[in-house]
Structures are given as C-alpha cells and as structure tokens.
C-alpha cells in the first residue's frame, strides 16, 4: 500500500487543468513537457492528441523513466531541459506549438531519503537530479571557499545569515569532511531559532539543491531555447515555486530576456517576442492546496509567441 501511495504522490500534478488548458492544444500539434517527472501533465496532454500529434517529455532523472507513457504520440528524452534546442534538432522538429515546464521538485524526491533533498531524513548529502553527473551537495560543502558558500546561500536561499553560515561550515570541515545530512544539521542548527528553524533549513537545502543542479543556468538556457523553438501563436506555460525562478520567467515573458532589460522600438513600443496570456499570475485554489500541500507556493504564467 505504501508503494502505491508513493506512486500516487509522485503523480499528483500541480495546476493540471489550468496549465494544460493554457497550452491551447490542437490534436495534431507538436508539444514539449520539459519536466516529465511523474508524467501527470504529459498524460493529460496525450489525452488531447490525435493523428499527427506529438509530445516530447524531458527528464534527466532515471527514476522518471519508470513513468514513461506507452503511447505512439510520445517520445521520452532522458536529458536536462537545458538541451532543449539540441534534442529538438535531433528529432528533426523545427518549431513547436507549446512548451510546458513545472519547475517544482517532486514530493517523490523529498520523500526518498537516499537522494538527500530533505532535512527530514538522515542520509548522504547528494541532491543530484541526474545521479550520473556532477558535484554532490557534500562536494559543494567540503570544497567551496567561504565566500563562494556565503554567496550561494545568500543568492539561492535568500538567507540573511549566509556569511555566518559559510564561516561555521568552513571551520567545521577543517576537522573532518561533512558527509551526511545528520552531520550537516548538527553544524548549522544552532544558527537558527526554534520558531523559524524549519523555514530556514528549507532555504539552506534549496540553495544547495539549486547549486548542485545548476538550476538557474539550466532554466535560463531552456527559456531562451523555448523562445526560439515556439511557432508564432505558440504558448510558453511555466509553473514556478520560488521567487528566483519566477523572476526569470516573468522577465522572459515581458521582455524576451531573463534579466528583464526592456528594449523599445523607434516609437517607444516594447520589443518583446511574447504577449502575456494571463496578466495576473494563476495560483492553486484552497482545495488543491489541501489535496497537495506542495502546490501552496506554485505560480502559473502563460505567454504567447508573437
């Protein structure tokens, strides 16, 4: 029963109807779900496709392969979505009708103690989405210098005591490597007051996860590739969960670049490849939040290629 519940949790997609409706699906169109995960959004997209319709689902995590949909319209791409451009070219797809990204980390990852995403379990400090590549969270904590650690906690975790945090980590590792979540918590817990401890620890783990998976760089590359890949009238549909990624998505939709630098034509009109479909961000209703607490911080933005 527990296994079944785990699978169900993995498959609970956030803002399902709102996001897939926002893709404006035509039965014979070509679509991309760059965050396949449990396959919930992809299944809904496929249910709306008919002859000639096509969906590519991207995921770099081998766990996601267990959820592959057996459907002639579906192609699974085991890769980071930052390589969207390369794989569209590989599959001989020039332009697509809509791209969906659900940027949240699935509850499946937080509930798997071996992956090291959550401070609720002891285990190795890993946090890699792609277990075949790159630095682990332990590598980051044990090899980055103090200034670099302080910067990542400040930028990606928006932690006010980032300098103190970095200093404590560097002092502690001098007497032995930090290898497990338990060891790491022992070092940093004294820095946080009891009443805000969970919130602050969540920010620390978020910052490490973003760094380990190069999430901001990957998101920037994917958003720029998506801008190029969409047909005129094509939709970019993105669900975000924290202010850093939301700012990037909002900027690309409003100005065509992630920095938010607005350029104007001779007549003072804003030069942007997109027009917003929903001026006001879409958020889950109370019923959805109750059913799926991780959707609480979700924001959905939709833009159409001009």
Tell me about this structure.
The protein has helices at 2-10, 16-22, 40-46, 84-90, 107-111, 137-143, 146-157, 162-173, 181-188, 197-212, 215-229, 243-255, 286-291; strands at 30-33, 54-58, 74-77, 96-102, 230-240, 263-264, 270-271, 274-276, 299-305. The protein is of the alpha/beta class and 306 residues long. The chain is globular, with a radius of gyration of 20 Å. It starts with a helix and ends with a strand.
Summarize the structure.
The protein is α/β, with parallel strands linked by helices. Helix content is 41%, strand content 15%.
Topology:
Layout: H1 2-10, H2 16-22, E1 30-33, H3 40-46, E2 54-58, E3 74-77, H4 84-90, E4 96-102, H5 107-111, H6 137-143, H7 146-157, H8 162-173, H9 181-188, H10 197-212, H11 215-229, E5 230-240, H12 243-255, E6 263-264, E7 270-271, E8 274-276, H13 286-291, E9 299-305
Parallel strand pairs: 1-2, 1-4, 2-3, 4-5
Antiparallel strand pairs: 5-9, 6-7, 8-9
Radius of gyration: 20 Å
Helix content: 40-55%
Distance between the termini: 49 Å
* Total helical elements: 13
Q: List segments where confidence is low: pLDDT < 50 over at least 5 consecutive residues.
A: 1-9, 107-113
- N-to-C SSE string, H for helix and E for strand: HHEHEEHEHHHHHHHEHEEEHE
Q: Please give the number of β-strands.
A: 9
Q: Which term fits the overall shape?
A: globular
Beta-strand proportion: 5-15%
Widest sheet: strand ordering: 3-2-1-4-5-9-8
**What is the mean predicted local confidence, pLDDT?**
90
Class of secondary structure makeup: alpha/beta
Largest sheet: 7 strands, mixed
């Amino acid at each position: 029963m527990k296994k079944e519940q785990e699978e169900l949790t993995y498959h609970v997609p956030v803002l399902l109807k709102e996001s897939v409706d926002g893709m404006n699906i035509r039965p014979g169109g070509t679509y991309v779900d760059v965050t396949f995960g449990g396959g919930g959004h992809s299944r809904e997209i496929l249910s709306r496709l008919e002859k000639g319709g096509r969906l590519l689902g991207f995921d770099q995590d081998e766990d996601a392969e267990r959820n592959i949909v057996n459907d002639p319209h579906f192609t699974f791409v085991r890769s980071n979505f930052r390589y969207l451009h390369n794989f569209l070219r590989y599959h001989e797809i020039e332009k697509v009708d809509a791209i969906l990204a659900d940027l949240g980390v699935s509850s499946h990852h937080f509930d798997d103690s071996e992956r090291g995403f959550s401070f609720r379990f002891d285990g190795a400090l890993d946090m890699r989405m792609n277990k075949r590549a790159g630095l682990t969270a332990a590598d980051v904590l044990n090899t980055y210098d103090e200034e670099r650690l302080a910067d990542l906690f400040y930028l990606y975790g928006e932690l006010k005591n980032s300098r103190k945090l970095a200093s404590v980590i560097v002092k502690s590792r001098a007497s032995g490597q930090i290898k497990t979540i338990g060891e790491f918590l022992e070092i940093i817990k004294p820095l946080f007051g009891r009443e805000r401890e969970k919130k602050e620890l969540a920010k620390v783990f978020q910052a490490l996860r973003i760094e380990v998976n190069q999430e901001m760089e990957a998101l920037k590359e994917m958003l720029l590739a998506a801008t190029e890949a969409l047909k005129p009238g094509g939709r970019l549909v993105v669900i975000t969960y924290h202010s850093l990624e939301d700012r990037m998505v909002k900027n690309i939709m409003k100005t065509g670049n992630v920095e938010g630098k607005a350029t104007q034509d001779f007549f003072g009109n804003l030069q942007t490849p997109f027009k917003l479909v929903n001026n006001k961000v879409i958020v889950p209703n109370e019923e959805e939040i109750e059913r799926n607490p991780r959707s609480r911080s979700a924001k959905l933005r939709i833009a159409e290629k001009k």
